[in-house]
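Page 47, continued from p. 46.
Same chain as before, 243 aa.
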Amino acid sequence: MLIDLHVHTRRTPGGALRPLEVLARAGALGLDGVAFTDLDTLEALPEVRAAAAETGVLGLVGLEFSTDHGRFLCFLAQPERLAEVPGLFGPAPRPARAALIRATGLGAAVVAAHPYDKTLPPACADALFTLDGLSAVEGLHGRSRSGANDLAVEAADHLGLPCTGGSGALASLDELGTAATLFRDPVSDEAGLVAQLRAGTCWAAALGVTLSAPSEAASRPGTRRDASRPARPTPRSRPAGRS
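Result:
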């Protein structure tokens, strides 16, 4: 299944997208679903549920929480049962390590969002190598420059984590689907999404790109890329911050 794993609604500052319009466009683009990840809020959940029922396109709800070391996508099996973010992780700016401990303690799958994109401060950057509890790294973010994405893929490779993809769509439907995540098995709800993220059965993908099979030698799935390109990038250097 192909899911855009990082989309915002009007509930995110600067956002202009409505879930009903997003899911309708997603179906037209050939996406199987969309994960809505508003910044520090779950307020769009009822609207997403209604839009999914009307369009028949899978609409999942997570969130993007901000910390002193960047932002993280957080997915939980039953988001309806959770309190709003300040009550869940504490008020911003919240310490990244404490927030990750809290999230993983709740059984969440946590993805480092655009960790090397300095245009979306604070960037996590090489602090990524000091954090525990990550299920994956966002290796393909549609609103980040390719250099930032390349560094994220390299970091995931060194950490032995899979890469996800998401458009980061915020204000225009044209942003939707520029990056997505391919899941090995069908996903029908947040519980299934969390299970596959934590198992590592996912790959970053771009629409219109032919996907190659993952390397049989890889202990965990990495990114899937154009068949003419290597499955993993050649690291330029050993990332700083890791002994």
